[in-house]
Specification:
Blueprint lengths: L8 H23 L23 H9 L5 H35 L1
Helix pairs in contact: 1-3
Length: about 100
Amino acid sequence: MFLFKTRDAFAAAFALWWFGESFMDLAPDINDARSLTLPLLGGNTGRTSPYGFHDWEFILKESGLANYDHVLAHTADKLGMFLMICALVWGGYLLYKQYKYLRL
């Protein structure tokens, strides 16, 4: 939206950074889909809650990907890291271009 509607590339770079950060936030929850040891919002852990209460346990079991929880978590973490680095490079490039423009 920032890039195409308002033509604000720096805001788009910031949104990309935030998008990547959200992938890194998802990784621990995905990684916990089998062990069910992280505390959940209801005050219990995935082990002590009914099936479907732990969202990633439910999603991965229903999709048949429960055995790949660690791989998916690792992928989400690395994808998030990659997106955040891309966003920082993009934002830095935009700031550099703006700096060069202001010096003219």
